[in-house]
Structure formats: structure tokens, C-alpha cells
């Protein structure tokens, strides 16, 4: 019979991210007490957001139009959509709700997650009036957000909630307020630090001469470089005249067709979480498990297993006396061995991780009790002295065998308690540490 090999596709980027988020969630459950509270809450929020976004799939790309009062977000939204939907108002702020346009299939679950009201959703169906390239935007969810500088605190809260949830941020600025401190300090710089996929649109260029428009664009590019956005282009556009709109739509179509923007947004969230976690970890630390056999042997000896083994060897040689059946593991000795284990297991790690391992490992009194009970329940070998002619030649071998068999039974009984009470919790904490440390290296992976 010939062997059949089944071809297995390599895991997709989404699958890898799902697995990484799952490891991160598990690690935070085990090691949360080693993480400063502020970082802990930030990472947990990131886990929840990434988990939810990946659960929606990456077939849709969420593009959020963000900007300040007068930037013309709603006009640009209409220009991209090609329909009058989010009508710009005269009063400011112009928008108090999130509006969404969806190219292609319905994205109700995704829009529910984004908390877009059903009456603010537009299904952008392709019809005969559309150009041939309209279908290239299939899979895009375009959001029109309230003004980030709105005097209405509720509007700013909507922006702050949606921005981290978007896959691609389309920052819209106008020639008069493109250098706004709040925009750069609290949004663009933050987006850069978190590696959020972004585009920057300089709207209303029809109000400027060509020379002035390019001068503003160059200055805006300089400011973006200060923010850390050295790879983000400035796209001069006029929502009113349509100038530059074809280039912008082509950029959006490229992002949507690649089907990687959503995954990249999740990855950037994880990179940001890794940077926050770095302070709670030790550079280049690689925690190792101590020798569990040494711990088992020491605890068995403390509980009297070695003494019984010696007595069993003596009986095999012909000595009289009963083998002890009373077990006592001194708590102070168990605690000393326990602390030595914890010290070795956390060597090179921050102090907080020693506390986490100590809390995960069984306490000395409970561990001592479990060891005593396990030894009482053990099936000890029957030891009988040798007689007759065998006694002349076999005493040493019989004694050695009796001692070995007794030690094996006793140490096996101790090991049954040490593995779940000491080894496995320590190993889990080490795995959690490595998973968190892996997250801090995600940034370097991207750079490579």
C-alpha cells in the first residue's frame, strides 16, 4: 500500500493572528498580576478589539474619514460614494453620527460592532451610471466620523471609539487648519506610534493656486514627518471639483483589493500592545525550568522515603525491624525547596514575575499534605530477607534492589503531586512570559 500525503496549505496571516491573539489572552490570564494595571487594561482592551475584528473576517476593509471642523469630510464622503448621503450642514459640527457606505455584500455584523445606526447605512450597489472601476472598491466600508474637535463631547467620544477600530484611517485636513495641534498631537502622532495604516488628504485645494496648494502639501508632509508618518503621502483633493479624487479612489481600491489592510490593522494593534508590555519584561530573558528530578528527590528525602529505602535495604540483608509507614514532610523543609525552585525558575525575570510564579505554585503546607497522602497510598514493594545459599552471595544485590525499588515507588508518589502543583504552573507561566515577549518582538519582525 502506497503512502498518501495530503497537501496542507500554509496558515493564512489571519489564522496566525487569531492564534497569536488567543495566546495573548491566555498569557494575560496567567500573568496579569505581573503587568502594571494601566498597561494591563490597555492590553486587555486590545485583545478584545482584535478578537472581535478578526471574528468579523477580513473580507471587508473599514476606512474611516476623520478630521476637524470645516475639513470637508462629509463632502469628501459624498464624492467618494458618488451619492448624496451624509449631507454637509451649515451649522457646526456638521456630523453628529457615524454614517457608513458599503460596497458589495452587506456588512451588518461589522456595522453593528462599529455601532453604526441602521438608518445611517448605505448599500453602495453598482449600477449602469457607475464607471467600470467602481467594482474595484467592492469590500470597502467607508465611515464618515464626527469632527474630532467638536464642541460636543459625545462627538469626540465617537471619534475616539471608532479610530482604533478602523482598518485604514483617512485623515482629512483643510489648508487653513492642517497644522492644528490637537490633530497632530492626539491623533496623527498617536496613529503613527501605533502604526495604524493611514492616508492623509488635503481637501479644498480648489481654494488655492497650484503653487500655494503644493506649498501647503509640502509643509503638511514636513509636519507628518515630525509626527513619525514618514511613509504616509499627502494627497491634494477637492471634493467640490473632483480634483485628485481618481487618485484617492485608486489608493482605496488598492488597499481594499489587497485584502490585507484589516489584518495589518490588527497586527499594528498587537505591535502597540507589545511596546506597552516591554516595560514589564526583561530584555533577552529566557526563563528555564529547574531540574524537577532534583526537587522530587529532595522532597522525597525530606518526607522519609530515603530512610525507608535504607531500612528496606537493611531488611533485605537480614536485619530485623518494621518498615516505617508514617510519613511526615516538614513544612519548613518543603518551603525551602519550594522557594529554591521559584528562585531558579524566575532567574533574570522582573521581581513581579517571581510573585506570579509563587502564587501559581502550591503553598508549602498544602504541598506537604499532598505528598504525605500520596506516600500513604503508594503500593510499596514487599521486602523479605534472603535465606539459604542465596544469602551467601546475594545480600548486596538484594539490598541494592530493595533500596532502588523503594526509592522508585516513593519518588513516583512525590512526583505525582509535584507535577501538577509545581512543575505545570511554572511551565505555564514561562509559556505566558514567552508569548508576551514574542509580542514585543513583533515590531522587529515587521522591520525585518
TrEMBL record:
Give the domain of life: Bacteria
> Which Pfam families does the entry mention?
MMR_HSR1
Which InterPro entries does this chain map to?
GTP-bd (IPR006073), GTPase_Era-like (IPR005662), P-loop_NTPase (IPR027417)
Q: Which residues form the G domain?
A: 63-203
Q: Which PANTHER family match?
A: GTPASE ERA (PTHR42698), GTPASE ERA, MITOCHONDRIAL (PTHR42698:SF1)
Q: What is this protein called?
A: 50S ribosome-binding GTPase
**Native source species:** Demequina muriae
Amino acid at each position: 500500500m502506497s503512502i498518501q500525503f495530503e497537501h496542507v496549505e500554509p496558515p493564512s496571516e489571519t489564522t496566525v493572528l487569531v492564534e497569536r491573539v488567543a495566546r495573548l489572552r491566555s498569557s494575560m490570564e496567567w500573568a496579569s498580576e505581573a503587568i502594571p494595571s494601566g498597561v494591563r487594561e490597555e492590553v486587555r482592551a486590545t485583545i478584545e478589539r482584535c478578537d472581535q475584528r478578526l471574528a468579523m473576517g477580513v473580507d471587508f476593509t473599514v476606512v474611516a474619514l476623520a478630521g476637524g471642523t470645516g475639513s470637508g469630510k462629509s463632502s469628501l464622503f459624498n464624492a467618494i460614494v458618488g451619492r448624496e448621503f451624509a449631507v454637509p450642514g451649515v451649522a457646526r459640527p456638521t456630523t453628529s453620527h457615524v454614517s457608513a457606505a458599503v460596497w458589495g455584500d452587506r456588512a451588518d455584523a461589522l456595522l453593528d460592532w462599529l455601532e453604526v445606526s441602521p438608518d445611517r447605512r448605505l448599500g453602495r450597489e453598482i449600477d449602469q451610471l457607475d464607471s467600470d472601476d467602481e467594482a474595484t472598491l467592492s469590500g470597502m466600508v467607508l465611515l464618515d466620523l464626527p469632527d474630532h474637535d467638536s464642541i460636543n463631547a459625545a462627538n469626540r467620544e465617537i471619534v475616539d471609539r471608532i479610530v482604533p477600530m478602523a482598518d485604514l484611517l483617512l485623515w482629512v485636513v483643510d489648508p487653513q487648519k492642517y497644522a492644528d495641534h490637537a490633530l497632530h498631537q492626539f491623533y496623527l502622532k498617536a496613529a503613527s506610534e501605533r502604526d495604524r495604516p493611514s492616508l492623509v488628504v488635503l481637501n479644498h485645494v480648489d481654494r488655492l493656486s497650484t503653487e500655494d496648494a503644493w506649498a501647503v502639501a509640502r509643509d503638511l508632509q514636513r509636519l507628518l514627518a515630525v509626527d513619525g508618518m514618514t511613509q504616509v503621502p499627502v494627497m491634494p483633493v477637492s471634493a467640490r471639483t473632483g480634483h485628485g479624487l481618481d487618485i484617492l479612489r485608486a489608493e482605496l481600491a488598492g488597499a481594499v483589493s489587497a485584502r490585507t489592510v484589516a489584518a495589518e490593522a490588527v497586527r499594528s494593534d498587537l505591535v502597540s500592545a507589545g511596546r506597552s508590555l516591554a516595560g514589564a519584561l526583561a530584555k533577552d530573558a529566557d526563563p528555564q525550568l529547574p531540574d524537577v528530578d532534583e526537587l522530587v528527590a529532595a522532597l522525597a528525602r525530606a518526607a522519609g522515603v530515603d530512610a525507608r529505602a535504607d531500612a528496606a535495604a537493611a531488611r533485605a540483608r537480614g536485619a530485623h525491624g518494621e518498615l516505617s509507614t508514617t510519613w511526615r514532610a516538614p513544612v519548613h523543609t518543603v518551603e525551602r525547596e519550594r522557594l529554591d525552585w521559584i528562585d531558579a525558575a524566575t532567574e533574570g525575570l522582573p521581581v513581579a514575575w517571581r510573585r506570579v510564579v509563587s502564587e501559581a505554585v502550591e503553598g508549602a503546607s498544602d504541598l506537604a499534605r499532598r505528598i504525605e497522602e500520596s506516600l500513604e497510598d503508594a503500593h510499596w514493594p514487599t521486602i523479605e530477607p534472603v535465606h539459604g545459599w542465596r544469602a551467601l552471595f546475594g545480600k548486596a544485590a538484594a539490598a541494592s534492589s530493595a533500596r532502588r525499588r523503594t526509592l522508585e515507588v516513593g519518588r513516583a508518589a512525590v512526583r505525582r503531586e509535584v507535577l501538577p502543583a509545581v512543575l505545570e504552573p511554572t511551565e505555564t507561566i514561562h509559556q505566558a512570559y514567552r508569548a508576551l515577549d514574542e509580542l514585543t518582538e513583533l515590531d522587529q519582525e515587521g522591520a525585518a
